[in-house]
Specification:
CATH topology of the largest domain: BirA Bifunctional Protein, domain 2
Number of helices: 5
Oligomer: single chain
CATH class of the largest domain: Alpha Beta
Strand order of the largest sheet: 1-2-3-7-6-5-4
CATH architecture of the largest domain: 2-Layer Sandwich
Helix content: 10-25%
Amino acid sequence: MTFAPVLPDGWTLVALQSVGSTNDEAARLAEAGAREGTVVWAREQTGGRGRRGRTWASPVGNLYSSIILRPGCPAARAAELGFVAALAVADMVPAGRQVRVKWPNDVLVDGGKIAGILPESSIGADGKAEHVVLGIGVNVSFAPEVPGMRYRGACLGGTVEAALERLTAALARRLAQWRHEGFAVVRAEWLDKAGPLGLEVDVKLGEELVRGRFAGMDGEGALLLDTAAGPRRIVAGELLARAA
C-alpha cells in the first residue's frame, strides 16, 4: 500500500513517475527560482548517474531523489553538504544494523553499499553557491549489482514512501546542525562512523593509485593519508578500500 510522503515543514514535493535524472530536473527548477526544500522524487530514472559520470541503475523499487538547497555559503563550503547528506542517510538506518560512511559520500550498511550521493553546485559571480542540488539514491527494496562494483549492494527495506519521509526528516535535522553548529560537529560525527584510524586504504586519483593508512579528514573535507612517502591530503579521488 502506498501513501503520500509527508515532508518537513516548508518543503515541497515534486513527484514524477519517470525522469531522465532527478538532479537535472532539480537543477532546472532551481534555475527557474524553486526555493530551498524542493524535493524532486521519481519512481524511476532513465538516465541516472553517479559520481564521475557513472551510470546509476534506477529501476522502479528504490528511492531516487534530488533536494534543492540554497546555502548562501562560499563555493568551497558547498562540498560540506555531501557529508551532511551522508549522515542523514546513515540516520535512516534502523538500529541493530552496522552503518559506515566512506569518503567522500558513500554509505555502507552491514558491509554493503546502500546509497549514492551526488552534490552538484551552481556558483555565482560572487563566489557563493547560488544553489546546491543534493542527489540521493537509496536502495530500498533491492540492491542492483553492477559489473565492476567494489562493494556488494545492500538495501534498507520497507517502502520508498517511508524512506523518503525518513530521509527528508533526517536531512532537515542535519542541515540545521550544519548551519547552527558548523562543519566541525558534522566532521566529528562523520569520522565516528568512518571506521578506525590507521586502516589501510587505496585511493584512486585518475590513473594514479595512492596507498596509505586512513588518518582522518581535515576541516575542509579533504581525506588525510599517511603514506610511505609521508602525509598526504587528498581533495578529490575514489577511496577503494572499505573503512569498516
